[in-house]
């Protein structure tokens, strides 16, 4: 009985592989190694700076331009189309992807719309935080101090970066060497 299941499993795996095409298990796009067994749109979401919605937009544009289904496996693409897919990932606005899905709209320095991925995204974020800190904005200062930026409460949470907030318990004070009682200093003459 178990042998029959293994034979059926082997047959279904043979059927899933297209004839004459080998699957590439690792596909490199935008300096990131992606899993070739995943559908195109899910694999693209593994690139830093591309969410699932942007990945689906890119895959649909790729489908329109090259007539390859957006949910086909990434590893089954011919190697020539990797450059085409990478061009869509790096320059989505040139291929008709809507501006609202880009992650850098109306950039402060140039005023143009961009979509940053991988190391460029990290560099851009660091540059933005430096600019906010330089102009001494509230957000910039809070970032530099390592505090919360968006109005969260800090009395009971976010204590990982700073000291303890609040009143010390009696047992903790005793353990630290303080008796907890006020001591009076005697004046010597």
From TrEMBL:
Entry keyword set: Ribonucleoprotein, Ribosomal protein
GO molecular function: RNA binding; structural constituent of ribosome
Superkingdom, taxonomy of origin: Archaea
Cellular-component GO terms for this entry: cytosol; small ribosomal subunit
UniProt protein name: 30S ribosomal protein S13
GO biological process: translation
Assigned protein family: Belongs to the universal ribosomal protein uS13 family.
Family matches, as Pfam families: Ribosomal_S13
InterPro entries (alphabetical): Rbsml_uS13_C, Ribosomal_uS13, Ribosomal_uS13-like_H2TH, Ribosomal_uS13_CS
């Amino acid at each position: 009985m178990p042998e029959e299941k293994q034979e059926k499993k082997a047959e279904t795996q043979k059927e899933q592989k297209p004839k004459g095409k080998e699957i590439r298990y690792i596909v490199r796009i935008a300096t990131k190694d992606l899993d070739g067994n995943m559908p195109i749109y899910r694999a693209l979401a593994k690139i830093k700076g591309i969410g699932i919605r942007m990945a689906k937009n890119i895959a649909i544009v790729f489908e329109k331009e090259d007539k390859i289904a957006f949910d086909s496996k990434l590893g089954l693409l011919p190697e020539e189309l990797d450059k085409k897919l990478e061009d869509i990932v790096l320059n989505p606005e040139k291929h008709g992807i809507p501006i609202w899905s880009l992650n850098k709209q109306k950039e402060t320095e140039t005023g143009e719309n961009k979509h940053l991925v991988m190391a460029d995204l990290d560099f851009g974020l660091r540059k933005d935080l430096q600019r906010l800190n330089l102009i001494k904005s509230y957000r910039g200062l809070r970032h530099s101090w390592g505090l919360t930026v968006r109005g969260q409460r800090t009395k009971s949470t976010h204590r990982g970066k700073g000291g303890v907030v609040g009143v010390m318990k009696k047992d903790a004070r005793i353990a630290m060497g303080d008796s907890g009682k006020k001591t009076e200093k005697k004046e010597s003459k």
